[in-house]
Give the backbone structure.
Amino acid sequence: MATGIPLSSECKHVFDQIWRLKQHRYAIFRIENERRIRVEWLGVREAGYEEFLADLCRAGPDQCRYAVYDYAYRQQYQGTTGTRLREKLFLMLWCPSQAQIKDKMLYSSTFAVLKQEFVGVGKCIQATELDDIHRDRVENELCWDRED
């Protein structure tokens, strides 16, 4: 059984709006008062990856966060010249190396709760440095792990 802070119905609702209803591109979550997880930012469906990164880092270089992102990319199939648009949902644990050890431990222990509750996530990413969340690196991870 997962330890950590339980996920609120608000977070589950927002996840459903992203995954099933396609109402938002992303959501960023934070732990509030070591007792509950709250939605901090929502990205409109038209938002780009750079906007996501700005919102993820908005709280400061030493603040941990969770994020769910519905990533769209073009996939080319071997032996063809055509591509098609694909989407893959990823869940991210952002624990910058400058964050306090207590925060890192709290966010890490609760990450398992999000992974369990957010059914439909195609990839989980844990990141500590800005290089870890650069678009090229994330896209490479998502495309490398595709199921088709």
Q: What stands out?
A: The chain has a mean pLDDT of 90. The two ends are 31 Å apart (CA to CA). The domain at 9-144 is CATH 3.40.20.10 (Severin). The chain has one domain: 9-144.
